[in-house]
Write a structure and sequence with these properties.
Layout lengths: L1 E5 L9 E7 L6 E2 L4 E6 L4 E5 L4 E5 L6 E3 L3 E6 L10 H6 L5 H5 L13 H10 L17 H6 L12 H9 L14 H16 L2 E9 L1 H18 L5 H15 L6 E3 L2 E3 L6 E3 L1 E3 L2 E3 L2 E2 L7 H16 L13 E5 L18 E5 L2 E8 L2 E15 L5 H16 L2 H5 L2
Parallel strand pairs: 12-16, 16-17
Antiparallel strand pairs: 1-8, 2-4, 2-7, 3-6, 4-5, 6-8, 9-19, 10-11, 12-15, 13-14, 17-19, 18-19
Helix pairs in contact: 8-9, 8-10
């Protein structure tokens, strides 16, 4: 019996996806539950498991844009599993067999050759597949193996003589260029940022915050905090908590335009911008206003790890009412972040630098961070934006107020 493998529905608003990479190869025998391929939407990358066991017949190549419901392969469920292709047989196989098997990888005569995704990575690195030890089934080279493989140092030496002479004639200065197709995530980021700039009356206001007192509190209690909650105490939880309290004071910053109406939220679903290998994603900490610092830290860590591994779901990146982005982790001193539409504002955090500060008539050196609030002037007035940012500043500079909720 042959069954069709189709692109599943992965979100209400998602109508098209990209087949990012095949994990299994054409003709492979797969077990029920094995991951067949990775599908990239405009919000997340998801894995597609096999519904049944059988032989895979691929009909769509990697990098193809597809509509939901499109057929990408078939599975022959009547085919029998190859002899010795069971976990039990694998466990009993002598460890020494993996060495000669690796030598057949390039020819594809055995199972231990690169998956399509792994082969693409190895080709880009210029690494010979026979030099890579596979950790997959039957010694198969996986995507993880390929990512961890070292680039071949002799790649430049194997270039055609004509290309080498061009480099020599130009004094060793390269003018090569590389053209890559934009990923679906990158195209979506580009479209949304352009839409945000063109469809909102965006303005940015700035302030600076003295980090001395929150750093002092953190240093005093971070060991006890980690021991009790099994997680480190970072600055993001303080800022998230301060933001939720400021949103209560200035509800317009937590609002959104819906046609001719303004939607106000009595909760704070705070998006935390996370940089991943594939681009910027914004997972959402739901009901952050009701969370403790420890709960916020744990949720941010959970979402950040899933974002790094490309495992975030569409629901985890939908429905935010306000966003925080921290360019300071990359060394940014000041920036004007772009609103994450349809939200009305975004807070930009930056790096912490020791600066001279006047306190009680004396100049002292304190750690200072610049803050930026970009907001939609159609909803938020100047007074509201300044009040919001000033409230965040005051809470961070006197963090005991957050604990006492005053």
């Amino acid at each position: 019996m042959s069954i069709e493998i189709k692109i599943p529905s992965i979100g209400e608003s998602i109508t098209e996806v990209t087949l990012a990479a095949w994990v299994k190869a054409d003709g492979d025998y797969v077990e029920e539950g094995d991951i067949l391929c990775e599908i990239e939407s405009d919000k997340a990358t998801v894995e597609l498991p096999a519904e049944s066991s059988g032989v895979l017949k691929i009909t769509v190549e990697e990098g193809t844009d597809l509509e939901i419901g499109a057929v990408i392969a078939t599975l022959d469920t009547s085919a029998a599993a190859p002899a010795g292709d069971t976990p039990k047989a694998q466990e009993s196989a002598p460890a020494t067999e993996a060495v000669p098997a690796a030598t057949n990888a390039a020819s594809g005569g055995d199972k231990n050759y690169p998956s399509p995704a792994a082969k693409k990575i190895l080709d880009e690195k210029g690494v010979d597949a026979s030099s890579v030890s596979g950790s997959g089934k039957d010694g198969r080279i996986t995507k993880t193996d390929a990512l961890g493989a070292s680039s071949a140092p002799a790649k430049a030496a194997s270039a055609p003589a004509q290309e080498m002479s061009k480099v020599e004639l130009s004094g060793g200065v390269s003018r090569n260029k590389r053209v890559e197709k934009m990923t679906r995530l990158r195209k979506t980021i580009a479209a949304r940022l352009t839409e945000a700039k063109n469809s909102t009356a965006m303005l940015t206001t700035f302030n600076e915050v003295d980090m001395f007192y929150v750093m002092e509190l953190r240093n005093k209690y971070k060991e006890a905090f980690k021991e009790k909650h099994d997680i480190g105490l970072g600055f993001m939880s303080f800022f998230t908590k301060a933001v939720t309290m400021a949103l209560k004071e200035v509800p317009g910053v937590n609002a959104q335009i819906d046609g001719d109406s303004i939607v106000y939220h009595d909760y704070a679903d705070v998006g935390i911008a996370v940089s991943t290998p594939k681009g910027l994603v914004v997972p959402v900490v739901e009901n952050a206003e009701s969370m403790s610092l420890a709960q916020i830290e744990k949720e941010i860590r959970r979402l950040a790890l899933k974002g790094r591994d490309g495992k975030l779901t569409v629901d985890e990146m939908s429905g935010g009412t306000f966003t925080i982005t921290n360019g300071g982790v990359f060394g940014s001193m000041l920036s004007t972040p772009i609103i994450n539409i349809p939200q009305s504002a975004i807070l930009g955090m930056h790096n912490i630098v020791e600066r001279p500060v006047a306190i009680n008539g004396e100049v002292v050196i304190h750690p200072v961070m610049y803050l930026a609030l970009s907001y939609d002037h159609r909803i938020v007035d100047g007074k509201e934006s300044v009040t919001f940012l000033k409230t965040v500043k005051e809470l961070i500079e006197d963090p005991s107020r957050m604990l006492l909720d005053i």
